[in-house]
């Protein structure tokens, strides 16, 4: 075999091998680069060039014209020289790139960049895409400033700023990205957020229990710093939302009709089971029948022995009905009515409330009328009292006169004139008896009237008048209007809507962690073991339901753009790797298989007799393996190929395997024309001449064939 | 001129040649005959080492062929014309190129080589097919081109490996005619392997009969075919008589 190469063919072969490697490298790297460039350009059109833009504004498509005008205004007013361009619109969302001029890429501007665009019409959200940068997601508020300060101290970091709970670290040089990422990871590892979660309904004084937990941790797990950062917890919005949902559910439940079920003996009800009642339907329910729209379906929410509670999830009982008692039936999923289960009582809470409101409205209307009437009555009483007082005064005067008259008649008192005496004499006979009676009676009555406490009566009247005035000052009409409004809105909540809403809320809540009270403790200068802390605090705080969660204070997120471009680079490397393998296989088949089959022929006809082992360990196969390994490893390395999980050694092995197989089946790929070859030998041609003039020109077209034309004489 | 000493060749476990000794004098035409598989072709291919013998020695003009270096072997082969049973022409080359290309590759002037080739082709009666490709020729013509190729370099020794075996019987005559003419008009030493008994009888100085890898009888044709001593010789005699 060596003589074959020694004959001069080795030069041709070395040239071929070198060119094979160079061509393979160019082929693999070139195609991969072309693909990379194509996809890279496409991506750049979509997401901008690296470092070209700082923010993407996601705008509702319908508002994009107005938004663009506003963005132009903002640019001209605040960021002269900034780049603004519209990119693709996806799913009704237009996207605008905004890139700041270098001199405006400061911490102050970047930290407030989103705020500048807050009033852009149709703005849904934004994404900061400044490059080079590192994005740290969900940085805990309690350590944000401290962490930002530490990160800004790192060489290569320009500044760090907050963006919707995340921290964006702007770098000076993209080449240092990985290195700085590692540094920031180290800083983040200095912190650990330990969260103590108590079950729902478990009331905890977070400050006190937090301090207690810290005291325990400091004692049992010393060497670290502990800080109660409960107040600075993130996710409060979600907690508040969930709590609001729970409250809303309870509120709706209080409005829902109360369903009480008494199961017949031998009937067992389960939570979640659905029961039907006839409700407003004219046809009574019966086993085997089908539910109609007028029937009501109830879902059992609680069971206690033969008693159960439920809520209406379909249909309505009559709105004007306070309560309803009917026989309940089980129903199958297809709406078919099954066996009766017992009595179902539905109490319409909304009807009762509406009734109470109606009565309140009537009361208020009556109260208003009553206050007016009472005021009139007080005024009348006052007038009566004045009249009474005046009458009383006149009576007193008359009483004096009568007394004087009486004294005159009876001769008692001072002497009188003759005319007076005449009058006295005239009336004396007529009135004497009357006067005496009147005086007597008048004295009795007047005494009684004088005993009346008019002042006290007036004071009482004044007080009543004042209270009536107070009542009249109340804006009863406003109260009536509001109650009327509540009354009017009540019928809008049907049992079915309430039931469905409650189920929906329950479904949502079921997918969430509904926090009870929770305490967050920041651990610095070292980490603690979650299980160890849980065990310690559960026993020390005497709460077996306490759960401990440990999280990082922030997570470094790969920058989306860098990630895409990194992915592209990886894809390019993978494509280059695959192409290198394909190329190696192809070139070995097209070119080298000819050499292998020639060598195998020469070996077959050689004088040396071969043993069985020599036949098995055919050096041509080893040469094939060696060539495959060399070509593939070289092409793979030079083209910058990189297939995940395949080291360069593995790649060389793959090349060797390909080369071995090509050599093994070389005669099938490129058979030697034995007649022509033998003719060449018989004519005294050297091996290299035979190769150049006979074998290679007659072989498959390939690089070797192409190169051979330079030296081929015929 | 040529001497084969105790030549052995085994394919796997089957001996093709089992200790063959043969001497050929300068200018002599030796015809080797024998049944198929008796080792004739192996023997003739061993002479220019197209097949490497396992044992023995081959001397040409007193020099061992088996001891030649690669370059010496090539030089030796250039002096030996070899005509194959199946022509062994280069399919992609024209007739003229087929005849001249080894001369050019041997370092001769292209013009001279072309003239030599043309003369050789003329000698075999194919002056009119220079630019044709071998597959455009009949079997007999192809074999004549192969003969011209062997003759072009002016060989000292011509080896013929059943040159008519793969020809249609109608075409055999034209080839034998050329061969006979060559034998008669040149003084080249020739070793011919053939089954053509009458041809052997006409051209051979000596006939060598082989069977099972061994030479069983040799001598002038009139002796071999008149009074053969070997079983093979008897068979050939019967064939000749019939």
Description:
The complex is a heterodimer of chains A (714) and B (242). By secondary structure, chain A is an alpha+beta fold. Chain A folds into 5 domains: 2-41 and 564-708, no CATH class; 50-197, BMC (bacterial microcompartment) domain (Alpha-Beta Plaits); 206-242 and 512-552, no CATH class; 258-347, no CATH class; 354-476, no CATH class. In chain A, 56% of the residues lie in helices and 17% in strands. Chain A is built from 21 helices and 18 strands. Chain A has a 6-stranded antiparallel barrel. In chain A, strands 2-3-1-4 form a 4-stranded antiparallel β-sheet, sandwiched between helices. The two termini of chain A are 26 Å apart. In chain A, 28% of the residues are buried. The mean pLDDT of chain A is 80. Chain B is of the alpha/beta class and 242 residues long. Chain B is 40% helix and 25% strand. Chain B contains 9 helices and 10 strands. Chain B has helices spanning 40-47, 70-78, 95-105, 110-123, 139-152, 169-185, 197-203, 221-226, 231-241; strands at 2-11, 14-24, 29-33, 55-60, 63-64, 80-83, 157-161, 189-193, 206-211, 214-219. In chain B, the strands form 2 sheets. A 6-stranded mixed β-sheet of chain B has the order 6-7-8-3-9-10, with helices on both faces. In chain B, strands 2-1-4-5 form a 4-stranded antiparallel β-sheet, covered by helices on one side. In chain B, helix 3 (95-105) packs parallel to helix 5, helix 4 (110-123) packs across helix 5 (139-152) and helix 5 runs parallel beside helix 6 (169-185). The radius of gyration of chain B is 18 Å and the shape is globular. At the A-B interface, helix 19 and helix 20 of A face helix 2 and helix 3 of B.
């Amino acid at each position: 075999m060596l003589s074959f190469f020694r004959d001069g063919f080795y030069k041709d072969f070395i040239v071929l091998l070198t060119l094979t490697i160079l061509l393979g490298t160019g082929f693999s790297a070139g195609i991969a680069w072309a693909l990379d460039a194509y996809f890279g350009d496409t991506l750049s059109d979509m997401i901008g060039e690296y470092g070209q833009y700082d923010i993407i504004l996601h705008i509702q498509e319908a508002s994009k014209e107005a938004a663009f005008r506003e963005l132009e205004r903002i640019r001209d007013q605040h960021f002269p020289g900034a780049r603004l361009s519209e990119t693709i619109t996806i799913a009704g969302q237009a996207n605008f790139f905004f890139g700041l001029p270098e001199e405006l890429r400061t911490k102050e501007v970047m930290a407030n960049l989103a705020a500048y665009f807050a009033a852009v019409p149709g703005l849904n959200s934004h994404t900061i895409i400044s490059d080079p940068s590192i994005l740290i997601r969900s940085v805990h508020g309690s350590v944000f400033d401290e962490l930002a300060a530490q990160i800004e101290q790192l060489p290569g970091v320009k500044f760090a700023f907050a963006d919707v709970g995340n921290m964006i670290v702007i770098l000076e040089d993209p080449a240092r990205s990985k290195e700085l990422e590692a540094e920031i990871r180290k800083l983040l590892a200095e912190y650990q957020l330990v969260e103590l979660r108590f079950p729902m309904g478990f009331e905890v004084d977070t400050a006190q229990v937090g301090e207690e937990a810290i005291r325990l941790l400091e004692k049992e797990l010393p060497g670290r710093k502990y800080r109660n950062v409960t107040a600075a917890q993130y996710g409060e919005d979600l907690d508040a939302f969930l709590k609001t949902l729970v409250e809303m559910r309870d509120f709706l439940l209080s409005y829902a009709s109360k369903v009480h079920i008494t199961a017949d003996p031998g009937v067992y009800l389960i939570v979640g089971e659905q029961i039907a009642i006839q409700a407003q339907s004219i046809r009574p329910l019966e086993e085997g029948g089908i539910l109609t729209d007028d029937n009501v379906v109830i879902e059992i929410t609680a069971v206690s022995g033969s008693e159960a509670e439920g809520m209406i999830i379909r249909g309505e009982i009559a709105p004007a009905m306070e309560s309803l008692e009917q026989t309940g039936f089980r129903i199958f999923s297809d709406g078919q009515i099954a066996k009766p289960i017992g009595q179902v009582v539905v109490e319409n809470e909304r009807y009762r409330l509406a009734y109470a409101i109606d009565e309140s409205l009537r009361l208020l209307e009556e109260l208003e009328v009553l206050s007016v009437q009472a005021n009139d009555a007080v005024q009348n009483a006052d007038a009566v009292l004045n009249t009474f007082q005046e009458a009383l005064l006149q009576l007193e005067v008359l009483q004096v006169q009568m007394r004087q008259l009486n004294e005159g008649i009876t001769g008692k008192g001072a002497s009188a004139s003759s005319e007076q005496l005449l009058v006295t004499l005239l009336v004396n006979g007529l009135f004497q008896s009357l006067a005496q009676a009147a005086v007597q009676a008048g004295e009795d009555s007047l005494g009684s009237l004088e005993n009346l406490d008019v002042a006290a009566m007036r004071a009482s009247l004044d007080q009543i008048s004042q209270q009536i005035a107070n009542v009249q000052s109340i804006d009863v009409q406003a109260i009536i209007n509001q109650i009327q409004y509540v009354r009017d809105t009540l019928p809008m909540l049907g049992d079915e809507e309430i039931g469905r809403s409650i189920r929906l809320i329950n479904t949502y809540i079921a997918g969430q962690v509904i926090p009870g009270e929770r305490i967050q403790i920041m651990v610095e200068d070292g980490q603690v073991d979650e299980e160890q802390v849980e065990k310690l605090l559960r026993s020390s705080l005497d709460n077996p339901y306490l759960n401990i969660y440990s999280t990082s204070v922030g997570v470094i997120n790969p920058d989306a753009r860098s990630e895409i471009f990194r992915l592209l680079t990886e894809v390019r490397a993978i494509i280059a790797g695959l192409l290198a393998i394909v190329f190696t296989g192809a070139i070995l088949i097209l070119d080298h298989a000819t050499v292998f089959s020639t060598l195998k022929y020469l070996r077959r006809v050689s004088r040396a007799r071969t043993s069985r082992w020599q036949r098995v360990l055919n050096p041509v196969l080893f040469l094939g393996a060696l060539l495959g390994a060399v070509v593939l490893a070289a092409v793979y390395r030079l083209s910058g190929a990189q297939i995940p999980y395949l080291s360069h050694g593995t790649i060389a092995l793959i090349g060797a395997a390909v080369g071995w197989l090509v050599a093994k089946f070389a005669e099938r790929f490129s058979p030697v024309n034995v007649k022509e070859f033998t003719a060449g030998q018989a004519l005294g041609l050297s091996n290299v001449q035979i190769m150049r003039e006979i074998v290679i020109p007659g072989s498959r077209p390939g690089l070797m064939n192409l190169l051979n034309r330079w030296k081929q004489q015929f | 001129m040529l001497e084969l000493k105790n030549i052995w060749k085994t394919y796997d476990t089957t001996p093709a040649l089992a200790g063959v000794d043969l001497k050929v004098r300068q200018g002599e035409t030796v015809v080797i005959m024998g049944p198929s598989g008796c080792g004739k072709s192996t023997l003739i291919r061993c002479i220019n080492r197209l097949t490497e013998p396992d044992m023995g020695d081959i001397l040409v003009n007193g020099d061992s062929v088996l001891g030649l270096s690669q370059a010496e072997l090539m030089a030796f082969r250039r002096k030996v014309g070899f005509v194959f049973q199946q022509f062994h022409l280069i399919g992609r080359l024209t007739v003229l190129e087929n005849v001249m290309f080894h001369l050019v590759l041997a370092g001769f002037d292209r013009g001279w080589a072309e003239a030599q080739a043309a003369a050789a082709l003329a000698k075999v009666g194919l002056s009119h097919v220079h630019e044709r490709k071998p597959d455009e020729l009949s079997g007999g013509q192809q074999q004549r081109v192969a003969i011209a190729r062997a003759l072009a370099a002016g060989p000292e020794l011509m080896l013929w490996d059943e040159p008519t075996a793969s020809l249609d019987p109608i075409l055999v005559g034209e080839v034998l005619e050329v061969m006979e003419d060559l034998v008669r008009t040149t003084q080249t030493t020739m070793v011919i392997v053939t089954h053509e008994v009458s041809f052997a009888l006409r051209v051979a100085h000596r006939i060598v009969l082989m069977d099972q890898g061994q030479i069983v009888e040799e001598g002038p044709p009139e002796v071999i075919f008149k009074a053969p001593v070997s079983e093979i010789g008897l068979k050939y005699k019967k064939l000749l008589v019939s």
